[in-house]
Amino acid sequence: MMKCIQYGHEIVALANLLPVDDSVDELDSYMYQTVGHQILVGYAECMNVPLFRRRIRGSSRHQKLSYQMTPDDEVEDMFVLLSEVKRQIPSITAVSSGAIASDYQRLRVESICSRLGLVSLAFLWKQDQTLLLQDMIANGIKAILVKVAAIGLDPSKHLGKDLAFMEPYLLKLKEKYGSNVCGEGGEYETLTLDCPLFTNASIVLDEYQVVLHSPDSIAPVGVLHPSTFHLEKKGNPDSHSPEEESSLVSEVLGDGPNTSDSTRQRDNGIVDLVEHTSNRLHISRAEKHNTFSICCWLEDSSESSKGLKEDLETVLTELESQLLKHGYNWQHVLYIHLYISDMSEFAVANETYVKFITQEKCPFGVPSRSTIELPLVQAGLGKAYIEVLVANDESKRVLHVQSISCWAPSCIGPYSQATLHQSVLHMAGQLGLDPPTMNLQTEGAIAELNQALTNSEAIAESFNCSISSSAILFVVFCSARTKQSERNQLHEKALVEVKPILYVEEDTDTEDETSRDQSGEGHYSIWGYKPEKWHQDCVQKRVVDGKVCVAVLSISAELMRKLQGEEEELEIVSRFCVYLLNKTLSENSFSWQDTTSLRIHFSTSIGVSVERLSAIFVSAFRELNEMSDGVKMDSLKEPIFNLVPVLGAGNSSASLDNIITCELFALRS
Hints:
Distance between the termini: 48 Å
Oligomer: single chain
CATH topology of the domain at 1-236: putative n-type atp pyrophosphatase, domain 2
CATH superfamily of the domain at 1-236: putative n-type atp pyrophosphatase, domain 2
CATH class of the domain at 1-236: Alpha Beta
Structural class: alpha+beta
């Protein structure tokens, strides 16, 4: 709560869950710590804010990590409690909890907040426990141990002792046994008797009993049962016993509102809209069978355009249909690239997005996502364009933290910070947001990207890796409003990308084969091209463990002039791109069937329609497929690449003169 105030929030109410029987100290709960609940009634007067209390009727019925609404589960008591708080105080916007490391507890608080339209605040999340303990003591929090359950902690010696007294010993236990100094592993529980938030009074514990739950000789378990206590007024020598419950305290009874999650209904006109625009829809699909990208976009004209909401609904409906057609649904999606024509309409895009992709539809975790404004309309496309990365298994590991914290920017909604699948970590697009305030850095593009780098590293650390050593691909999306001088500094100083992809191999030494040179002649001599030294300057590649092959191919305006001949320039460029990509795959023992995605970024300055450019590249791939020494592709009924219009692109943020930039990702299962 002190952190909440530090970051500009106001405490308007307290909420507490306690046992049905006042004489019971502790419940067999996976979720709640109740030891010392008899004293909590005094907090309302100490802080002069209302306290809402509810007796826990449910039990731990849903014990999987990610929570789904379950009747008679103890989490539903929290839903009823917070529903009543919100009913009585409609102005509340957020709920703060003290989660430091428990995903189990954090996910349940986030689930309830999501259902109630509240924001979860968890400013202690992922913070260093040793520093946290020091900060708590330094900031005047007087908290006593009310439960111990760990080696080195003795109920008869340590219950009732405050944190300041226990700090040296807790640090010693950490060094000796690896204990959590803040008790996050269940080593101990505390009860606060005084802190700066207690402006009216502090709590004095007069008498207590030590109750031994387990006399284990190594790690005995015991709790402190408060017998009598009183409030000591601050600024007033008079003190009194809180026998008569204050009017600030109220008990929440009953079952609360209907706890069933409301199902979002689609607009009735969406199906008709899709049928009406089916002739404008275009689909592309990568070659790999078990992990692949599907892309959907709309051709646009002044007559057919209806707006972002309608275009996005059409594209999402078609993608949903395509997934079902291949035997998949949204739970199989790892990552979503959401491209829109105008970022000022982000709220409209998000509102439409959450009608289709929900946490209920994705029980193994919602996809990670990046949302980018692109010159779609200038390129002759509709106002929404989506690419999804799909996997045919359920082995993904998703990191989805919706709570606002000091750790990394929250993802409030059905999109996650990162998704790990087959050792590849797909990280959501990272902005230069200050995590606890969720405000953009105000010092300009360089400050934003430095913050984005810090945020990316925090997420990487959750997967025991680092962007400095594990990154295999970075893509920087730079606003057209960024000044040229800032772009130069950005490249020199930060070298940071906003959308990282990392390789995370557990318990295995990773062999980086980036520098391996296996260039040869043979079948690389196609369309009259033969390997030349300058070709290497066009391609940046990384091959790791023989499992992942990433290549970025850049065609600048200068190179285009070098390639031009009697034919149209773009036809030559398309063949050269396909030749070099095929060569890169082949010489590293990959095939087109290993390709999960091929993104072709093109500059709108070339003045060619997407339809025309697509036909040019499709023709180049068909020619490759027909060559006797080419690598055969299964099907070219749909393009195997995604065309992405940009205002500019390049290997350096200071030089964005690429006409074509191909981004290839191949994964060998």
